[in-house]
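Reply to dn_fold:

You asked what the input looked like. This is it:
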Amino acid sequence: MKRIVIAAFATCILTFSLSCKKGFLDQVPDDRLTLDETFRNRNSAEKFLANVYSVIPDEASQRFPGSDNNIGEWTGGSDEAEYDWGFVATQNINNGTYDASSGFVSGFWTTYYRGIRSAGIFMDNVDKVSDLPNSLKVQYKAEARALRAMYYFWLMRIYGPVVITGDKTISPDASFDDVQLPRSSFDECVAYVTSELDAAMVDLPLKASNTNNYGRVNRAYAMAIKSQVLLYAASPLFNGNTDYSSMQNADGKKLISDQYDASKWKNAADAAKAFIDQFVPSQFDLYRVNDANGNYSPYLSTRDVMLVDWNKEIIYARIDAGITNRAYELAPYHSGYADEVRGSGGLGATQTMVDAYFMANGRSIDDPASGYVKTGFSDFQAPYDDKARRTYNQWANREPRFYVGITYNGSKWLNSNSGEVITETYNTANSGKQTGGNDYSPTGYIVRKNIVTGDWRQGGRSWVMLRLAEIYLNYAEALNEAEPGNADVLKYVNLIRNRAGVPEYGSADLPAPAGQDAMREAIRKERRVELAFENSRFFDTRRWKIAEVTDNGPFKALNISANLPEFYNLVTFENRVFNKRHYLYPIPQKDVDSDKQLVQNTGW
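and this is what came back:
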């Protein structure tokens, strides 16, 4: 069996169309004969399955979200970052200028349901394939079942309760007007998705048997997704949230329960711990690497975990991702330098994200004992540099993950193949606003995480979608809510901190957070830094129900329209808009109009 190369197979020419002309359920083959022909032989059946896989989003290409590619606006649409270009849909997210008719709103709904429909068709028909071994029929069916469950979950993250079409695939002969289905409650969606993942796990391989099977869904990934589903179900947005009390189907069914259920946190903690007990360290472990002198390097470990394909921490990655799309955004403009170091620098980190990183002593910058200095300059050697350089004090003596994640004015660029390059982001500098024209950082900082150390145009690398560090943080968060004071909470947060090279909580240098509330805040801070720019923050602030604070109001940046020293002054680059209705996207208006049982989300 050849490896499923998603990007290639996504455009494979099949003998039927799965396009959406009227609504999310109007996605069936043109006729029965075409469907029968598709499942007549192994080759065309495997292409069909590859098409189901193609719905997995390529999140490395977030300049081009929505439509048929399912790419999200999660990085620039969160408080982590800002895109330079006005055409990127994140501008609509940040300004609150979208509604139920916006293209990207309907894009996710349509495309994920297309994948759900395709997975069902495959499961219904794969047994007909005469030249496919029974063992592969069972495995492929389990893969399709898991993919269908994942697509439901990814819809739930965006829209909340969704329409569960069930195991029975709607007949190709049914007209669109005949299909009238209500939304299931969020709890029903969770129960269905987790039960489907459980069923799929029985027949999924534990892990990829060889490199040719990278990119396939396996038992480990299905189990990890289950833990994520249960974490969302336990989170404040969906657990005891009274804001949606009036959102009900025609029969009076509440779509989101307004009753808090503490057992949901225990379910989430148990699911994450079950994953850890089964797969760590036999299959997964935190990625750690030594430097050239043989000493452990927190900087290299937290940097290269995103760069080394399928290392021991990676649970799942999207193969053949458009990684050069993201690299173009991360590589600064670097006017006058070789093409291999010249990008756009158009994905700027916000000041609030820069401030979120800890100091080298593991303390937040607002801690009086952190040693943070807000003004002035000092000679400081970054962990990727070969010498000390004059550095703005705000950026000196920060933790290793800061230097993995942020390119700042005066920092050395990672690729020195054509000579030393120092990135400068003030107005007339080599990567400044006036110099770059349409390509510059809108904040004065450039996201650095996930950029290769050589030619940024180098492709062929996968995009990390889930790694063990997130499971550890999921477990710590859920356990802190279910059993505050349990020793495992501190243990798993400290495993993350230890790998990152910052003092552990409860060590001689740093007291442990005292009480459940303080621990909750510590876990959220750790998650923000560890998973920065990995598409978690957008959903975390929403499920925690804090986005009205974190994603709303004035956002600060360096004064990119000025040269030194005025460049270092903070200015407001955008006043963002986030209110209660923005916690969930609206259901696409065309589907609400067509399906008379489909209830719109509150506020839309």
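Residues 130 and 148 are 24 Å apart (CA to CA).
Hope that clears it up.
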